[in-house]
Design a protein that fits this description.
Keywords: DNA-binding, Transcription, Transcription regulation. Pfam families: GntR, UTRA. InterPro entries: Bact_HTH_transcr_reg, Chorismate_lyase_/UTRA_dom_sf, Tscrpt_reg_HTH_GntR, UTRA, WH-like_DNA-bd_sf, WH_DNA-bd_sf. One of its GO terms (biological process) is negative regulation of DNA-templated transcription. The protein is α+β, with helices and mostly antiparallel strands. The protein folds into two domains: 64 residues, Arc Repressor Mutant, subunit A (Orthogonal Bundle), CATH 1.10.10.10; 167 residues, Chorismate lyase-like (Chorismate lyase). The chain is 27% helix and 31% strand. The protein has a six-stranded antiparallel sheet. A two-stranded antiparallel ribbon has the order 1-2. A two-stranded parallel sheet has the order 3-10. β1 and β2 form a beta hairpin. The mean pLDDT is 87.
Length: 250
């Protein structure tokens, strides 16, 4: 293992063990070397070896119980989440469509409330901080198990008093953003997504049944009609779920 200058020893050990797990050299269900074995192998103290295993524990790559050996965590089945630029809004729910294509049942729970736009969201929606928005928090489930989270914001200046003001209530509940916005004369012509790595917060971890602090990908998505932002959302993707982009050529 090559040493990286100024990288703490426990981090270098965690990096090497992570590589072995991801490459399959340490298979799911296999016992991790003991702290004494790690300390001898890497010429560090038991405490340093322990800190390395704590990193992998927080990332959800290993698990242990008191009095039992530490094991490489079994890899849950990966669920593909198709992000397709040419079929972003099939009739009905995109989540239903994606899960049905994989032989699974996609459902969700949602809660909407009117909130003033935080500064970062106001910047994404081209409105003033404090302007009224409809915020909707979603938990998406596959076969009844929580998979990922999404929080969307829509400017009430666009939707107030319309049939789509509450995304999950009324005659158009459950439709995708593009279909809903088209109903009030705002047909999106572009969706922009920025992928942002960060760690899972405690409230998010509670909703997903996971451990806070594990790495996740956040998709910051905004729907546009020309220069007008129609909706923006933070989509939190934890492992083992992965966004897959399908991009047509020509």
């Amino acid at each position: 293992m090559r040493a990286i200058p100024d990288t703490p020893a426990y981090q270098r050990i965690a990096d090497e063990l992570r590589r072995q797990i991801l490459d399959g050299e340490l298979a799911p269900g296999e016992q991790l070397p003991s702290l004494a074995e790690l300390a001898q192998r890497f010429q560090v103290s038991d405490r340093t070896a322990y800190e390395a295993t704590r990193v992998l524990m927080r990332e959800g790559l290993i698990h242990s119980r008191p009095g039992a050996p530490t094991l490489v965590r079994e890899r849950p089945a990966s669920i593909r989440m198709t992000r397709s630029w040419y079929r972003e809004s099939p009739k009905g729910s995109p989540w239903h469509a994606d899960m049905a294509a994989q032989g699974r049942t996609g459902t969700w729970s949602a809660h909407s409330e009117r909130v003033p736009a935080p500064p970062a969201i106001a910047e994404r929606l081209h409105i003033n901080p404090g302007d009224r928005t409809m915020r909707t928090e979603y938990v998406f489930l596959a076969d009844g198990e929580p998979t990922y989270l999404s929080t969307s914001w829509e400017p009430l200046a666009l939707t107030h008093g319309t049939d789509i003001m509450l995304p999950e209530q009324g005659p158009h509940a459950g439709k995708g953003v593009a279909d809903r916005m088209a109903l009030i004369g705002h047909q999106p012509d572009m969706a922009v997504e920025d992928l942002v790595p960060r760690t899972l917060t405690s409230p998010e971890a509670t909703s997903l049944g996971l451990r806070a602090g594990i790495p996740v990908i956040v998709i910051e998505r905004t729907y546009w009609q020309g220069e007008l932002p129609l909706e923006t959302a933070d989509i939190v993707i934890p492992p083992p779920y992965r966004p897959r982009y399908e991009i047509p050529i020509g």
